[in-house]
Amino acid sequence: MALGKHKKTQEGRLRKERSDSLAINLATDYPEFKGLAPSTTLGTLEKKFGVSGVNQVRKALKKTQNQG
Question: How many CB atoms sit inside 10 A of residue 27's CB?
Fold first, then answer.
């Protein structure tokens, strides 16, 4: 799994992506976000799919893209 721009914090954990991150910006690192409305936020997608975090949203987007 590619980490993209995510770096580890001093505690050794990966930095959490902000919920106000735009899909257009996330699409540069994660292809699953391509094709979404550019103004869609990560927080909106988290609420829509009932998940938390960029990786879980990516999995949910992959699942919906494979169904359609």
Answer: 15
On whether the CB atoms of residues 32 and 59 are closer than 8 A, the answer is: no
- pLDDT of 60 reads 96
What span, in angstroms and rounded, lies between the C-alpha atoms of 44 and 11? 28
- Give the burial class of 54: count Cβ atoms within 10 A of its Cβ; 0-12 exposed, 13-18 middle, 19 or more buried: buried
| Domain spans, the chain | 23-67
Total-model pTM: 0.77
Angle (nearest 5°) at CA 41 between 8 and 58:
60
pLDDT exceeds cutoff 70 at 15: no
